Each structure stands twice: as C-alpha cells, then as structure tokens.
Task: inverse folding
C-alpha cells in the first residue's frame, strides 16, 4: 500500500513508499483494529523529521512512515475487541508504552524512559498510509457527526493535557477558580488552547506579533477572546495594567516569550509550557525578580508534552461542545487540505511555505 | 512589658520597647490564649526589617515588635479553648487571614490579597516580647519532651510547605516515587530541607560554596546526605554525570542557582523555590534549553512562601522523628543563643555578623 515516508537522518527524504498492508493479527490477544486512514494532519514535528533533526525508523527498517495526527474509520476488529465496530471513526494516540513505571500504568505520556516509541516520530510507523493496525487500547472513538473536524483531535490533546495538568496541580489550592487566562501564540495550538479555556469559562487574552486585522485574530475574537498584537502591547504591559494572569498557556516556540510569561503570572498562577524550542538561544533575564515573584506568589510553571488517552477523551467532549457553541469555528482551522498520499511533495511544500496556514492535512481517502 | 521593636521605615531602629501586656479578651469568643514567650529565633527577615527594606507597624502604632519564629508556654486560656491548657508548649503560625477565598478557608499562606497580616513582619506585632495573646486556632501544641528544639519549628514549616506542595503537585503522576533529591544551600533552611527529605527516604545531595571540612557539611553528612562544594562540582555537573534529580529544593538566595537548578531536574522532576531574592540581578540563561527540557520532561517549578497550619503539624512529627533517628542533630543547629530581650543589640549583631551561625535566637525566659 502507499505511504508517505522519510529516511531518518537524510534531510528532505520525504517520498511515496510502498509498504506491506498491515494485518489484524499483528496485535496479540485478538485486540487488533484495522483502520482505513481518512485524513492526517501535519505540523512542525513532521517538518523537523523531514529536515532530519530527529525521527527514527522502526527497528530493522530503513524508512519511517510519517504522520501522527490521524483520523480514520475502522475496517475490521479482532475477536476480543468489544469497544469498537467496523464503521466507527477513530483517532489513534501517538506514544506507545516503554518500560518505566508510568508506562506500565498507561501514563506513557509521562515516561521517564530515554527511548520513546511514537507513531510517525520515533521507532514506530505513523499514519500517512492507506491503512494502519493498532491495539484497541490506543484508539479513541470519535463521533460520526463531527467527522469533518476529526483530524483536529490530536493537536487538541496537546492543549487538553497542558490545561488538565494545570488543574491537577492546582488541586493543591483546594478552591482554585481561575478567571483570567493568557494564550501566547495564535497558531493551531494557541487557537485550540483559547477554545478549551473559553469552554471552561475563562476570560482569554491572546498575544501574537501580527497586527490586526488578521484571520487568526478574527478566530480568537469569534471565541470571545481578546487579541493583542505584541508590538503594541506586551503580556507584561497587560499584567502590569490589569493584574497578573491565573493561567498562561505558552505556544509560540519562542523562549523569550516563556520568560516574559513567568513575570505575567498573578499570585497562585500557573504557566503551561507546551512549545518546542530546539535552538540554542541565550537571553538575559531578571533572575532575582522571577525567583522572588514565584516564591512570594506561590506560582507554578509546568512543561507538557504528548497526551494521555484521557486527554483524547476530554478532547472529544470539548470538540463536541465547541461545535455546539461556536458552530463552524473548528472547520475554519482546516485551511489547507491536500488530496492523496501521492501528493506528498505538495503536502510538505504547503506545510513549509503556505502563508496563513493553520492546519495543513492530507485527505487520504473520502469519508 | 519588654519587647524588641523597630520603627518601620527607619533603618537600624531596633530597640527595647515598653508595651502594654496583652489580655486574653483581646481575642473574641473566649478563644484567646496567653503565652509566655520562651525563645524566639531571628533570621534574614528580621535583618531586612531592621534595615527598613519592608515591615509595617500595626495600624495606629509607631513600632513593630519583631520576631516570627516563636516558642512559648501557655499561661492562660479563654473559656472556649478546649485544645490547649496552661503549661502546654506552643508555637504560633505567622500569617493571619485577610479576605481572599484562600484566607477564608484557612489557606492564608496562599492568599491572593495584596496586604499581608504577619506577626512580626507586617501590620501585627511579633513574638519578641514577654507575652503574647493569640487565637487558639493559630497555635500549635509542641511536645514538652522536645522543648529544647521547639524554636526550630517555624523555620521547619517553610521546608514542610515546599516539600508538601511538591508532593501535592506530583499526585498528577499517580505513582511518583522520588528517589534522588538535591538541596541547594546549607543554611538553616537547606539543613532542615535535607533532614525532611532524608526522613522521607530520599537520597540527598547538598550543594554549597564552602569547601570541606566545614560544620554545615558535617551536619549534612551526619544525616547520610552527600555534601558537594560547588567550586569543585556544580549541580549541573552532577546531573550530567549521574542523571537529573527528582526533587530540588532551592534555599540559597542566589537567583543564578535557581536557573542552574532548572537544568538539573530529571524527567517529571520538581523544583521548589523557597528563597527570597530581593535584588535586581539580571543573568544570561540558555532560554531555549530550559524551556525545551521542561516541555519534553513534563517538569515543574513551584514557588513557596509562608506555611499552612498543617505544615506546622507535619513539622512537629518530623522534628520528633528526627530526634528519634538523628538524636542531638537538631540541637546542633542552635548555635547562637542570646539571653534576655534587653540584649537586643547583641542579638542583632550576632544575626548580622556571627561567623558559622546557623540559628541565632533570643532566650526570653527559662523553660
């Protein structure tokens, strides 16, 4: 069958591969599920793997099939699969268990192992192919009525995990009631973070560089969030004038913003770091002040990566609520479809260079 | 009665004051407790208040009685005090409730108010006097068999709160089992942090500037902790060679150490910031790397100040266990007693300039 793959370690090696179609019995205990792939989103991770910054093929193989943001339909299930049926729409989680104590209880998103097993990223093939097979334990059922936006579930789970971790951490405060949130960055993750926070009733201020008007600012405002262009007013300006934020979700990929955000938290505030900063940037920071404010204000900063199966379940509920509350909004994130695995070159060109892209994805097959 | 007080705002104003003896009925509802003060520890906060860096007298008064690390004996109790009797030894908590939702449920250590009410620090008299009166709700009974080290309870609560917050936060990991801890700094707080972590079974490495041998290093080693002099080997060196730490307790007062500590955490690690850095120091940090490691390792940083009543209760239990396990160790922290409130000048001179001081305290009255 067709698949989009790279040769890990070789820059710009993305190509159309021909790989064997997977079989149900590749999963033991009758728990296999065969899924026809319908759509797969691509993001910075795919770009970086194709640039050979990281990524690893499954043991003994030369290529790695890309794609970790999946959406598909069940074709067949093993004898012991009770929770899914052919025809069901599903999204697969990404990381597979290693050996740490966290992996052993289904918390592989919190693994302490040095080696990760991640579909489409590290040591396991991804979903940019006609079919895939996986254990039912790693598949999350998705409502058929929302299938048009199903490919947004995986990026939503990044946000769900970060916000859930913040709330878990703040249980220590017993009566934490966050009201004011800031979202740093208005890319896919920033937009989805604002959505999830708005659904929880928080007032959201989004910060990004581009002046208004711009489509992402409009998307923020259509959620009832405020959009501020940082050249005019920074998160520190706003914190100084209006008070610090209860929750800040950082999704810019710029580490300078991380340190500004530390100073824009209110007392008992929590800063969620979700963006990957692969560079080597060093900056000067007001070290005494950052420490002092964290101490005197009982503040927290937490890093978050990957997502738990429960974050996928929470994501399904939030996407459903979003469609009910902000009808059509999620569909507006699906800016750049590319039809067919064979158009891999255009898929990656769009990913790398399309202006105004929010979500670039491959339409592998029709619904 | 005699008291040691300052005129807030006036540097070096510490003096012996004559103030009215407090009465039980200053507390409403028959919940008052009158306490004879036996010992009061002093620390950097007292030094900074006497330097007029902060501190505020009670409304309508010109002086602030100093002292927040108390130890005393109950003289008399109001009609509705059931939990304390005359003759009981007690330690008072420091912060009194303001008006935020946290204050209203006894979590004034997590207040979001801008104004603090803290005995001996802000708007409330401290304990450096012959007697004090307070509500029974703010007094914690201390075992008579441990009275010699009772004055160490309040500093211990700083450590108890920080470590408790770390464990509360890590409940999100469900099976967190920290094994390797680092303690930055070997002053009173660093020593007590190492003690509390050792009592919880963690392997502890303490980092400080002074080469071995020195008394604080010896104290660390007597707990079974390892002492490393940072000019020889930094926390980053150790993390690189032996792996990152599960928990780091920062108690140096040097913000450069804070940022080094961020990079010395292991996956799922937690960094507890407890030291006050009042300066204006700016430093250059590897911003991309700090953010990246927090994100990929699901790491947490938390600031902590003040302590909850429960932290005092936990402190009592830990001090009792410490005496049972490391007999005599706590007594060795009581390096510099100064007898009598009238010797306030020597008390402060010792606090400011004594070499090798761990705990400087005033013996206000005999047991």
Result:
């Amino acid at each position: 069958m067709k698949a989009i793959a790279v040769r890990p370690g070789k820059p710009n090696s993305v190509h159309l591969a021909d790989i064997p179609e997977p079989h149900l019995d590749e999963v033991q205990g009758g728990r296999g599920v065969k899924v026809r792939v319908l759509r797969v989103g691509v993001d910075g991770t795919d770009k970086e793997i194709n640039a050979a910054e990281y990524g690893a093929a499954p043991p003994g193989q030369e290529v790695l099939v890309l794609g970790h943001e999946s959406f598909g339909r069940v074709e067949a299930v093993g004898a012991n699969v009770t929770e899914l049926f052919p025809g069901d729409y599903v999204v697969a989680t990404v990381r597979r268990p290693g050996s740490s104590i966290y992996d052993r209880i289904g918390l592989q998103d919190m693994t302490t192992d040095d080696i990760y097993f991640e579909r489409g990223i590290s040591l396991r093939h991804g979903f940019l192919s006609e079919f895939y097979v996986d254990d039912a334990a790693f598949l999350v059922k998705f409502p058929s009525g929302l299938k048009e936006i199903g490919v947004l579930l995986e990026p939503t789970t990044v946000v769900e995990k970060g916000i859930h971790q913040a709330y878990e951490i703040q249980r220590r405060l017993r009566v934490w009631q966050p009201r004011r949130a800031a979202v740093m960055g208005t890319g896919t993750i920033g937009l989805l973070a604002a959505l999830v926070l708005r659904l929880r009733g928080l007032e959201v201020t989004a910060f990004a560089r581009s002046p208004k008007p711009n489509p992402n600012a409009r998307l923020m405002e259509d959620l009832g969030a405020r959009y501020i262009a940082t050249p005019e007013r920074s998160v520190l300006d706003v914190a100084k004038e209006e008070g610090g934020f209860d929750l800040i979700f950082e999704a810019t990929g710029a580490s300078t913003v991380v340190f500004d955000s530390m100073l824009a938290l209110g007392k008992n505030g929590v800063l969620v770091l979700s963006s990957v900063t692969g560079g080597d940037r060093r900056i000067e920071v007001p070290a005494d002040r950052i420490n002092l404010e964290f101490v005197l204000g009982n503040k927290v900063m937490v890093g978050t990566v990957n997502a738990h199966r429960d974050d996928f379940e929470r994501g399904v509920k939030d996407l459903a609520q979003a469609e009910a509350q902000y009808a059509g909004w999620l569909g507006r994130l699906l800016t750049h479809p590319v039809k067919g695995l064979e158009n891999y070159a255009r898929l990656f060109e769009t990913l790398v260079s399309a202006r105004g892209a929010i979500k670039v994805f491959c339409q592998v097959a029709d619904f």
In short: Chain B touches chain A through 57 residues (CB under 8 Å). Residues 33 and 346 of chain B are 30 Å apart (CA to CA).
